[in-house]
Amino acid sequence: MLSLSGLSAFPITPSDAEGRVDAAALRRLLEPLAAAGIDSIGLLGSTGTYAYLSRDERRRSVEIAAETVGGRVPILVGVGALRTDAAIRLAQDARAAGADAGLLAPVSYTPLTDEEVVRHFEAVAGEGGLPLVIYDNPATTHFRFSPALIGRIARLPGVLAAKCPAPEPAAAGVGVAALREAVPAAFPVGFSGDWNVTEALIAGGAAWFSVAAGLFPRTCLAIVRAVQSGDAARARALDAELAPLWALFKAHSSLRVAYALADHLGLCRAEPPRPILPLAPEIRAEIGATVRAMSLA
């Protein structure tokens, strides 16, 4: 079974106003990620705006990714949907198109109970034919997993890892320990929320699920490799150098900043799906100036 650790890069999914994926632009985003030697790609994550794309375009995105980087780097694919049967079909589609694992978030309109989320994972893992990563992203789904619920789902057949929001740095040790105690010994728990992840990795997190790595893979990989080599001081120093980028993410949302940076870096000129609006020109100028000053672009 696929083992998930290290750096997982989460790029945007460039598309036009009608939600048609721009294949050439997606390839331009994916190729540098594989070339940098990252450990996996998170396609159609929240930054990849999976919830805004049709089933056909989601399947097409996976096909494009598999043609571009398949066999060189594992591809994790968002398969979340409001209905369980729809998530099962998306998992089946992703598997057929070349995905290595699915990212399953409990997307809902009516708030879900823990039991409903467990049944949802049971069904998608059992019928989707694709290994699943627990996708805890309360900022978008408005559902937060407890460590106990993570531990319960981690023991289901076909569930291979968890992606959780990184605790605030001061609470990283306690937060990571609580999750690791809740899951089986060999079960990897990784983290998102770029500005908090370094301390979570140092505290024992298995992976960084990163928006920034979708644009700056080598910069983020240096942090991960420093942690893996036991050099926490270097990891913290490299993370501190990215503080201006983290400030932009927190001020304007990492998704909106990622779209602006993809344009600034010349990778693609896509806009986020409506009703999400592109950032104002003056903010885009600030973003460009910031990454130039950081020698990221």
Question: Could you characterize what this model shows?
Answer:
49% of the residues lie in helices and 12% in strands. The chain has an eight-stranded parallel β-sheet. Helix 4 links the parallel strand 4 and strand 5. The mean pLDDT is 97. The protein is globular and about 50 Å long. It is α/β, with parallel strands linked by helices and 297 residues long.
Give the SSE map.
Blueprint: E1 6-9, H1 23-36, E2 40-43, H2 55-69, E3 75-78, H3 84-97, E4 101-104, H4 114-127, E5 132-135, H5 138-141, H6 147-154, E6 159-165, H7 172-182, E7 189-192, H8 194-202, E8 207-210, H9 217-228, H10 232-241, H11 243-252, H12 254-264, H13 281-293
Distance between the termini: 38 Å
Query: Which CATH architecture is right?
Result: Alpha-Beta Barrel
Q: Identify the strand order in the major beta sheet.
A: 7-6-5-4-3-2-1-8
What kind of sheet is the major sheet?
A: 8 strands, parallel
Strand content: 5-15%
**Could you tell me the number of beta strands?**
8
CATH topology: TIM Barrel
> What number is the mean pLDDT?
97
Radius of gyration: 18 Å
CATH class annotation? Alpha Beta
DSSP helical segment count: 13
Low-confidence regions = none
* Helical content (DSSP H or I, runs of 4+): 40-55%
CATH level 4 superfamily:
Aldolase class I
Shape: globular
The secondary structure category is alpha/beta
